[in-house]
Design brief:
Strand 24 and strand 25 form a beta hairpin. A 4-stranded antiparallel sheet has the order 1-28-27-26, with no helix packed on it. The radius of gyration is 20 Å and the shape is globular. It is mainly β and 375 residues long. It has one domain: Methylamine Dehydrogenase, Chain H. Helix 1 packs across helix 2. The relative contact order is 0.11. It has 3 helices and 28 strands. The longest helix is centred in the last third of the chain and has 16 residues. The two termini are 22 Å apart.
Amino acid sequence: MAVTAVHQLAQCITCHAWSADRSMVALCPNNSEVHIYRLVEDKWEKMHVLQKHDQLISGIDWSARSNKIVTASHDRNSYVWNLEGSEWVPTLVILRLNRAALCVQWSPKENKFAVGSGAKTVCICYYEQENNWWVSKLIRKRHDSSVTSVSWHPDNILVASTSTDGKCRIFSTFIKGVDAKDPKKESRFGELIVQLDLSPSWTFGVKWSPSGNTLAYVGHNSVIYFVDDVGPSPLAQNVVFRDLPLRDVLFVSEKMVIGVGYDCIPMVFAADERGIWSFIRYLGERKAVSSGSRYGSQFSEAFGKFYGQAKQGVSNDASETSRTRGVVHENCINSIIPLSRQGTQIRRFSTSGLDGKLVMWDLETEQDLLELLVH
């Protein structure tokens, strides 16, 4: 098993983020608060409750260098939290949104953060030293629907977004006076670098590979998309699977991705020496299951959820199949966050979901995946 620890910290977890030393975790228990836990003698103790938003918090990110927490909420606001003494002090960021803020992420240099929203807008926020406040610049009139996820390129300039209009877009976020000028990457703020029309359904969970050469995102049609050479002539491929759709993805190396979502179990995808991506296996299974039988059981499970559970006293073979797979989560996994790295490779990560569980996973215990990571 790849699972190293399972913690029931709430009835439902909307999102979570880790401190730089991984000794504390901030999470939203499906309300307007942020709960910060610290690991004390193998037990998680609640240290702080951050209360400023008045609606559901939909995004949290914790900066590694500056130790700042940024939150985004359905109340259309964002706060940057600074630890002053023993108290977390919030600073309001005016996003100028008329719809909910749905996701947030710090840039690699932590001098900016991006907020996706239901207003078809991406807000790029930065600190204005002269006025001692956080300001935002909006990327408008580019999306046709809500922005579900954002991800920063390692260059700190490009940001990718996914939307419920089925598209993935990459924009320039160059801000004069904030970003160093690079003659090789001259672009103006909000410039659309590329628009990917690969999915006919909602899209979620976009991420860049460690080098920034590959982009991965998922569709609500149970497809994961991989794009190389992002630019005027991108090289795209997709992997179709019969399981329930994914919600988020994480590159654990340049050629390996972990996907999580409605099927309640992490899925591993990897690229071979030719660069062809494919599904490898499920993470945390007690017993290896062939693709054919697994897909068949999932097909039955999907129908069982619609029909079998509606009848009292009717047992579902599919639900029994899920138990024998060794699934840790019991509801949709909505976020996946790295925990430890070795160079550009991620060896441990955490997941949280609508079942209120925070689960730590260790790839070092998975010998076949460890061999793929090394090679």
